[in-house]
Each structure stands twice: as structure tokens, then as C-alpha cells.
């Protein structure tokens, strides 16, 4: 409440759960490997300084192999 008695309206917060997009459908993305499921993975930079965090992206995963969605 404000001092004049008027209720303050707070903006809604938007909660991000993952990388900001929905997981891909990984049908027929892993070849014959089963099960093929969506997974979030961190991208590490190939060249340059070490970062404190790495961006995350969606990939299709089967066993220990990753495939592009």
C-alpha cells in the first residue's frame, strides 16, 4: 500500500524454467538408437577465455550421443 491508501500493483514475474524454449520432438533424430529424448546441454566455448557459465541448448540424446533436433 502506498501512503495515500492506494494499493500498489506489482507486475507479474515471468519464471523461466529452461533455455527459454520448449523441448524439441526428437522423433527420427537419433537414427536407429532408442530411446531418443530431448535433453538440455551446456555449450562450452571452443576458443577464448573461460566463462563462468555456459549457455544451454536443446539437443536430442540417445545413450551418450547427442544429435541436433
TrEMBL record:
Controls stomatal patterning. The lineage of its organism: Eukaryota, Viridiplantae, Streptophyta, Embryophyta, Tracheophyta. Pfam families: EPF. One of its GO terms (cellular component) is extracellular region. It is found in: Secreted. The keyword Secreted applies. Belongs to the plant cysteine rich small secretory peptide family. Epidermal patterning factor subfamily. The gene is gb13071. Its main location: secreted. GO terms for biological process: guard cell differentiation. Keywords: Developmental protein, Disulfide bond, Secreted, Signal. This is Epidermal patterning factor-like protein.
Amino acid at each position: 500500500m502506498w501512503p495515500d491508501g492506494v494499493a500498489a500493483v506489482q507486475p507479474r514475474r515471468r519464471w523461466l524454467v529452461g533455455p527459454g524454449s520448449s523441448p524439441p520432438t526428437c522423433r527420427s533424430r537419433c537414427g536407429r538408437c532408442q530411446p531418443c529424448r530431448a535433453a538440455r546441454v551446456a555449450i562450452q566455448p571452443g576458443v577464448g577465455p573461460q566463462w563462468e557459465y555456459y549457455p544451454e541448448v536443446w539437443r536430442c540424446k540417445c545413450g551418450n550421443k547427442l544429435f541436433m533436433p
